[in-house]
């Protein structure tokens, strides 16, 4: 194991970047959130609009971060952006939040969902789910410990496979469905929130989350100033088309009230209508592959941020160790270890909800960074490099991104005030850690 000043290998091309975006965003949400979004929206027209608007807000955020990322093409993603925009303290809290809260909780949540579906598919008792999760994380982390071209190839492969069940749901619903995708309303079933379009959009934004993890790989992308924006933009466009297409296909195949009643079983119902019991099994396999790809994408991206912080001396030095394959081996296994602990002792769903809220705080600040960077350019009399990506329709797109972030934060604050308070406590724990390393590094 080597601990010198090595650089991570720039071996990832734009297709790998696109695969990371698609792979980390498309997991279980598109398959299991249809009933919740539809009931909350109150009808199929509003449900489709919620998925589309959520996607457009996410795309606005992706375009905005792409300009920031193209000008700061370094490993560490939002942590590095926040540090350069707002200083060491805010940058550290950003990284701390991702390292200590966001990354382990999201990885634990995805692993738990995968393990539950895996156990159900093979008839394994549910008490073995934590064991399956730990084994899964060990396998994924081991793969990521080798040359990143191996994990990259796995990411491209799983992303390609996961599009198969999505395409099947879209095609069957559009051409063989017997319901009417448009104009249906949902009778009051279980939720007093029925008809709340804002909360429906909020639910889709959670399903779209994960795209920003690609920014953590800025130091390993070939020609990151061009490939980072391309990967984020094209990846998100594919995700939006997939989400809206699957939603339309499901609405066309199953009546609205039945979708709400079936909830997470909707995809299985559509698959069985199309292909019988075999279709349900094939769909389950497709979802398992989808979630494995999502987990790999997160393990590919999150440890790079841990590595970047350790390399700068604000986390324990052992976390910057890289192996002969030039992979951040210590950061990889530490991130996996924290996630394994959460799988065993914590409620991953609650933690992931908290993590998503916290990360949107930093998304909002990163979106504002575009204005800061452009003002600095004008103040210094420096023209932007013509080779760098510039967000289109400036300043409208960044304003939409900021508005979307505020929408997430305000609605979460209203709906889950206690969770918001607890999330701030976890962030605040990072303050003494920051000052400890400030004193230590003097």
UniProtKB/TrEMBL annotation:
Segments traversing the membrane: 12-32, 48-68, 89-114, 126-146, 153-177, 197-219, 231-254, 274-295, 329-348, 354-373, 393-414, 420-437
Repeat among keywords: no
Keywords of the record: Membrane, Transmembrane, Transmembrane helix
UniProt GO MF annotations: L-amino acid transmembrane transporter activity
GO cellular component, one term: membrane
Principal localisation: membrane
Bilayer topology term: Multi-pass membrane protein
UniProt xrefs under PANTHER family: AMINO ACID TRANSPORTER, SOBREMESA, ISOFORM B
Protein name: Serine/threonine exchange transporter, LAT family
Organism this protein belongs to: Weissella bombi
């Amino acid at each position: 194991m080597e601990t010198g000043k090595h650089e991570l290998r720039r071996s990832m091309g734009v297709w790998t970047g696109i695969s990371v975006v698609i792979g980390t965003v498309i997991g279980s949400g598109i398959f299991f959130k249809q009933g919740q979004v539809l009931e909350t929206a109150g009808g199929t027209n509003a449900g489709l609009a919620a998925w589309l608007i959520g996607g457009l807000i996410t795309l606005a955020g992706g375009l905005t971060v792409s300009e920031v990322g193209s000008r700061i093409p370094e490993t560490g993603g939002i942590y590095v952006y926040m540090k350069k925009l707002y200083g060491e303290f805010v940058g550290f809290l950003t990284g701390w939040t991702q390292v200590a809260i966001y990354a382990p909780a999201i990885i634990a949540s995805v692993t738990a969902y995968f393990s539950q579906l895996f156990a159900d598919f093979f008839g394994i008792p549910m008490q073995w789910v934590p064991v399956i999760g730990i084994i899964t994380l060990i396998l994924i982390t081991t793969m990521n410990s080798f040359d990143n071209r191996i994990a990259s190839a796995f990411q491209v492969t799983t992303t390609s496979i996961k599009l198969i069940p999505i395409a099947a749901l879209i095609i069957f619903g559009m051409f063989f469905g017997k319901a009417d995708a448009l104009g249906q309303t949902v009778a009051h079933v279980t939720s007093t929130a029925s008809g709340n379009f804002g909360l429906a959009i909020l639910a889709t934004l959670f399903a779209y989350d994960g795209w920003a993890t690609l920014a953590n790989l800025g130091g390993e992308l070939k020609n990151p100033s061009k490939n980072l924006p391309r990967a984020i933009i094209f990846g998100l466009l594919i995700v939006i088309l997939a989400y809206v297409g699957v939603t339309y296909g499901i609405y066309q195949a199953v009546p609205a009230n039945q979708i709400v009643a079936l909830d997470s079983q909707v995809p299985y119902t559509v698959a069985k209508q199309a292909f019988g019991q075999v279709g349900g099994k094939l769909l389950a396999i497709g979802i398992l592959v989808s979630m494995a790809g999502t987990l790999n994408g997160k393990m590919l991206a999150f440890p790079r941020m841990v590595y970047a912080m350790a390399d700068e001396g604000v986390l324990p030095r052992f976390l910057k160790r890289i192996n002969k394959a030039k992979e951040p081996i210590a950061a990889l296994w530490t991130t996996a270890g924290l996630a394994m602990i959460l799988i065993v002792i914590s409620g991953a769903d609650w933690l992931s909800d908290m993590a998503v809220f916290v990360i949107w705080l930093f998304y909002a600040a990163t979106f504002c960074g575009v204005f800061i960077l452009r003002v600095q350019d004008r103040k210094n009399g420096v023209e932007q490099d013509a080779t760098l990506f510039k967000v289109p329709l400036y300043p409208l797109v960044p304003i939409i991104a900021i508005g979307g972030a505020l929408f997430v934060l305000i609605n979460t604050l209203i709906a889950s005030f206690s969770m918001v308070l607890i999330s701030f406590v976890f962030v605040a724990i990072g303050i003494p850690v920051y000052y400890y390393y400030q004193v230590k590094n003097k």
